[in-house]
Design a protein that fits this description.
Layout: E1 11-12, E2 15-16, H1 43-57, H2 63-80, E3 83-86, E4 92-96, E5 99-104, E6 107-110, E7 117-120, E8 128-132, E9 134-136, E10 146-148, H3 150-153, E11 154-156, E12 162-173, H4 176-181, H5 186-203, H6 207-211, H7 215-233, E13 237-248, H8 254-323, H9 325-341, H10 362-371
Antiparallel strand pairs: 1-2, 3-6, 4-5, 4-7, 8-12, 9-10, 11-12, 12-13
Helix pairs in contact: 5-7, 8-9
């Protein structure tokens, strides 16, 4: 029921109408009344009493001058709110009506108070981290367990194999205005650029170099391509390093892949042994071939020299033969007989055989005995 009908209880919304509970708008009879019928409060009286109480809080010079002092104090506090400090690891950016106005250096700075200007101080030396293909399950410093994200980590190589790549990207703010105004979600942008760049680099290479000796090269290529893309976006971000945490075949085929790797290792070992044997045998064969070739060349030179000497000797004898044919023929005959008969056992006897004494060939017998 309406409160003005509670006349029987002698009450109103500000408490009991009678007794010692007196306050603003309350008289001895429960407060002023309009007319003769109800306990309706006097609103004007309540406002007047509130103004009197507020006036007592002002300086004694008068209500008008006190209000001026309060306004001056409030204006001073508003003006002082424009001071702000930029730390050594931060970069100050002043916005005027929400639009970039200027940059400020570390230290104490001032801008026009809100809502005219505001200041933002992003940390430009703090190294930020984005993980792709994995999520840290705990504190990274305490070596927390990581959770694999296959929809990010599984990538197609250039030879149409699949490789599981988990990597981290570290970045810092290079230009605060570009960072604040050109990209909306820095972490999301860096993550999207990093994943697409890694997929491009992995797609240009075969799986074997990716898993073995080409990891550092891939990191440098991803870093360079990411920086180029972010600069095209005007992101104001510098990629400091890219770290490939894990590069493995997919879990479903990793056992078979390890068997293939073992077979390749055996193949490489057998190839190295064959190369070692070839490196030992081939030089020996080459040396033997050189020796035989040089002996043949020496024999050739010797034979040609002997033939030349014989031809020269024959030519000189022929020249002498033409000068004195009879003497030369007789000398040649005797020299030939000397050579032929000088290599045979011979006995010269007279034609009739007289004076020849038969003898036993004791020397031949002894020689045959020694031979046996």
């Amino acid at each position: 029921m309406p409160w003005d009908n509670n006349s029987n209880n002698n009450q109103n919304p500000w408490g009991n109408g009678g007794g010692s509970n007196r306050g603003p708008g309350r008289g001895n009879g429960g407060g002023p009344r309009r007319g003769s019928g109800g306990n309706e409060p006097d609103i004007e009286e309540i406002i007047r009493q509130a103004q009197q109480r507020f006036g007592r809080l002002l300086p004694s010079a008068g209500g008008g001058s006190g209000m001026v002092v309060i306004l001056a104090v409030l204006l001073g506090l508003w003006a002082l709110s424009g001071f702000y400090r930029v730390q050594a690891d931060e970069q100050g950016v002043v916005l005027r009506f929400g639009k970039f106005h200027t940059q400020t250096s570390p230290g104490l700075n001032y801008h026009l108070p809100w809502p005219i200007e505001t200041a933002v101080t992003p940390k430009v030396t703090t190294e930020n981290l984005v993980d792709i293909g994995m999520r840290a399950g705990g504190d990274r410093r305490s070596a927390g367990v990581t959770r694999d994200v296959p929809e990010e980590s599984l990538m197609l190589t250039g030879d149409e194999n699949i490789v599981d790549v988990d990597f981290s990207v570290f970045w810092v703010i290079k230009d605060a205005p570009d960072y604040l105004f050109n990209i909306q979600n820095p972490n999301g942008t860096v993550k999207a650029v990093a994943e697409s760049t890694m997929r491009e680099i992995i797609g240009q290479n075969d799986i074997q170099p990716i898993l073995t000796e080409q990891r550092q090269t891939n990191e440098e290529q991803v870093k360079a391509l990411m920086q180029k893309t972010l600069d095209q976006y005007g992101a104001g971000i510098t990629v400091t390093r890219v770290k490939m945490q894990k590069v493995d075949p997919p879990a479903a085929v990793i056992d078979a892949f390890r068997d293939v790797q073992a077979a390749r290792a055996d193949q490489e070992r057998a190839r190295n042994e064959a190369n070692k044997y070839a490196n030992r045998v081939v030089p020996e064969a080459q040396g033997e071939a050189v020796r035989i070739r040089r002996e043949a060349e020496a024999y050739l030179a010797q034979t040609v020299a002997e033939a030349d000497g014989e031809a020269t000797r024959f030519a000189s004898i022929y020249d002498e033969y033409r000068i004195a044919r009879g003497v030369t023929r007789q000398r040649m005959f005797l020299e030939t007989l000397e050579k032929v008969l000088g290599r045979t056992n011979k006995v010269i006897i007279e034609q009739d055989g007289q004076g020849v004494v038969p003898y036993l060939p004791l020397d031949q017998l002894n020689r045959n005995r020694e031979t046996k």
